[in-house]
Amino acid sequence: MLWCWCVLVCVSAASALRVGVGIADVTGPPAEIGFMGYANFEQTGHGIHLRQFSRAFVLEDGRNSSQRIVFVSVDAAMMGQGVRREVIKRLKKRYGDMYTENNVIISGTHTHSTPGGFLMDFLFDLPILGFVKETYVAYIIGIYKSIVMAHTKLTPARMEYGEAELLGANINRSPTSYLRNPPEERAKYQYDVDKTLAQVRFLTASDDVLGVINWFAVHPTSMNNTNRLISSDNVGYASILMEKALNGNNTHPGKGSVVCAFASTNLGDVSPNIKGPRCEFSGKVCDQESLLCELPKERCFASGPGRDMFQSTKIIATKLFETAMTVLKQPGEDLTGPLGVVHQFVDMPLEEVHPYDPVTETFNASRNVSGCFPAMGYSFAAGTTDGPGAFDFKQGTTSGNPLWDAVRDFIAEPTKEDVECHAPKPILFATGRIKFPYSWQPRIVSCAVARIGGFFLAAVPGEFTTMSGRRLRNVVRKTAGAKKVVLAGLSNIYSDYIATPEEYQAQRYEAASTIYGPHTLDIYLNKYVELTEALLNDAGLAPGPEPGDWSGQLVTLVPPVLWDAAPWRRDFGDCVRQPEPHHAPGDTVTATFVAGHPRNNIRHGRSYANVEKLESEEDDAWVSVLTDADWETKFIWQRNSKILGTSYATIEWEIPPGTPPGKYRIHHYGSYKYILGGIYPYHGFSDTFEVT
Ligand SMILES: *[C@@H]1O[C@H](CO)[C@@H](O)[C@H](O)[C@H]1NC(C)=O
Ligand SMILES: *[C@@H]1O[C@H](CO)[C@@H](O)[C@H](O)[C@H]1NC(C)=O
Ligand SMILES: *[C@@H]1O[C@H](CO)[C@@H](O)[C@H](O)[C@H]1NC(C)=O
Ligand SMILES: *[C@@H]1O[C@H](CO)[C@@H](O)[C@H](O)[C@H]1NC(C)=O
Ligand SMILES: *[C@@H]1O[C@H](CO)[C@@H](O)[C@H](O)[C@H]1NC(C)=O
User: Fold this and answer.
1) What pLDDT, in 10s, does the model give residues 362-382?
2) Measuring CA to CA, which of 53, 408, 518, 525 is 20 to 30 A from 478?
3) Is 575-691 in CATH node 2.60.40.2300?
4) How many whole angstroms from 229 Cα to the centroid of ligand 4?
């Protein structure tokens, strides 16, 4: 009895923190759904390269179990209010008031190669042809599952902080905008993007790693807008590499107990395409300001560092992974102290604040500035060098075009106040004024600050540029007297970009997409000071206005799967193109199967395609060595005839060096929709082939 009591007391005294980690599959519908990010109508999915995962971290104050923080990093383009509300609704049903809008932070990694249609705000779902319930539900269920898993695995833990510089993995894609910031401010920084990889890690009493969260500012746009296979891009692959390294190389992606996130931060103007912008045909460096090339129709876009987008993704991912492993092996700083979190919904156009002076690092109390109703500028439609836009728009546009003005006015005319408020931005879409069919962009955003001892996490509802992020970290650091401040990007609600007021004047893509006007950042700087003070003083904070819910009136033009059929004299799962009988590392094995539509069953936590190895000839025992979530495999689905409903799935396996020799086969799983109704599973194998 006495011994028991001592163990309890000793454990709770040694470790005031309890931590649980969880991971779940959130892969969206793998075919025929538009990808979210590049706003390219033609970029619809037709298979999987890397599956999407939700990585959840639940932190509990060991002294007061009602003090909790949930941080989730999702392989998604961003997080949306609808998904978050539904996740919290389900958590409330299961756990009561333990998890609420106040303490659940969900941050998207910002991959541009995953299915969209889950945001509800009309402008964001427009390139996807509207709302897609399948994507929406995939996120809700998967995120919820990952949090439940983390909750059930809560255990006493320590938290440590570490960081390292990573060069050669990111560049600024709007360097001329960055130069608009005051020289005195720029002089404080060596680079025009952040080069620090920040890491927190959770360790058991015996120093085993439970989980790791890394933050490094870079757009997951190594996969470009021609990619049509679902991918978590550079940061997603870095997570898979790190999880393999810590869980063992034989662990399938998403199945290990150690969870490692590479979460988004102030990546607004940061590109992984480090070769920089070049002309499509001539290969010459394009004009930095206008991003124009000599030939008409010749586009200017950035790429690199690899020979193609897959190799570029792998190179950036490997740099992130190796840097994170280096930090992990170095001694860290213990983060002990109180746990807390505050949250507020903010109606941006109604905010009136004192502007921030980045030179003196003070707010100017003799001036007031305010937010605007949401609107997008012309340069938004130009896209960026990571994904050029579809129309004849150029970045840096500060004057309108009569045709587009007419289109714009037909949708909703900006008021005189809008025009003045957003100046010098020429308004392309006055999204804040459009009521049809429902909201086009959010007016109300979500702001949160969490702390664990001297570590502060500012969760922001959009893409802060490099300098915007630095200003936000500085004001939080100053207010809190804290040493470590990290910004969690694209959290909870998506409200596009946040450029500095100086960058805003240049009206490049990021500024044109700063939707509450030139003082958007000033409002956030004031708000996060207020939040940090409330957190420090343990003062109550008004919850703010609840964002609207129009989930009952969503528009969709995405057709459902009608039916599937196998070609004449064939069955679903038949292998119609067999692999070669002999292969060697470096080869790509290809097998094609008669398939059903993958939207019939998303196969979360499972796979459409496994590579299997024969372990024992006499028992015919096969072990699956890779799934469709592994880097080395690609699952490619193609509709053969919409009318007949026939389709094929091609599975590719790039055999890496070091693959053990032996007998292998490809195993395909799927489901077909019968023409008279019902969805039925099927599977099939390729012939056995030899790897030598
Ligand atoms: C524990 O935390 C909750 C939530 O912040 C608070 O209301 C409560 O007073 C705390 N209890 C103790 C014993 O400190
Ligand atoms: C896992 O694979 C990597 C790269 O191939 C290798 O360096 C490492 O030693 C392997 N780890 C284990 C535990 O086998
Ligand atoms: C995308 O990458 C591929 C190589 O993987 C390249 O051929 C293509 O030109 C790139 N397109 C754009 C728009 O970046
Ligand atoms: C504050 O703004 C006013 C009005 O624009 C300006 O005159 C003054 O110099 C500013 N004060 C500081 C401390 O920057
Ligand atoms: C700024 O706004 C506050 C609150 O609305 C108001 O009291 C103050 O007079 C305003 N100051 C200026 C300089 O307009």
Assistant:
1) 999 999 999 999 998 877 776
2) 518
3) yes
4) 52
